[in-house]
Amino acid sequence: MEPSFYDQVFELVRLIPKGRVSSYGAIAKSLGAGGSARMVGYAMSNAGSAELPVPAHRVVNSAGLLTGKFHFNPPELMQELLEQEGVTVKDDKIQNFKKHFWNPLEEL
DNA sequence: GGATTGACGTGTC
DNA sequence: AGACACGCCAATC
Length: 108
Prior knowledge:
Layout lengths: L4 H10 L7 E2 H7 L6 H9 L13 E2 L16 H8 L4 E2 L2 E2 L2 H4 L3 H4 L1
Parallel strand pairs: 1-2
Antiparallel strand pairs: 3-4
Helix pairs in contact: 1-3, 2-3
The protein binds a DNA duplex (13 and 13 nucleotides) through helix 2, helix 3 and strand 2.
């Protein structure tokens, strides 16, 4: 099976350093998908089906909200993982999001 | 192979 | 400030 959009998303997400987070839009842009940030999120839904583990908890929306936390098992796991990596999360949203933000376009 | 579906983003009202 | 609407585009049914 040839590398699909999903695989590209998975690989990029795996490149996110520990303690850092990124947004769907930034990832999509980095893949050349432009404004198709939905594809990134949709791909992440398949993250559970990925062969290699994907740190989906490091990917949030542009507002820094843990929109996909309900897709975890359990849902609160996402916040737990982030806090374990030094990211403060309150009310399902990342504090200092801008500070923890990892831009694949610049860092990569 | 057309219709449906999103873990989004940005702009309006 | 909060709620609503539309656009984008690939994968799945």
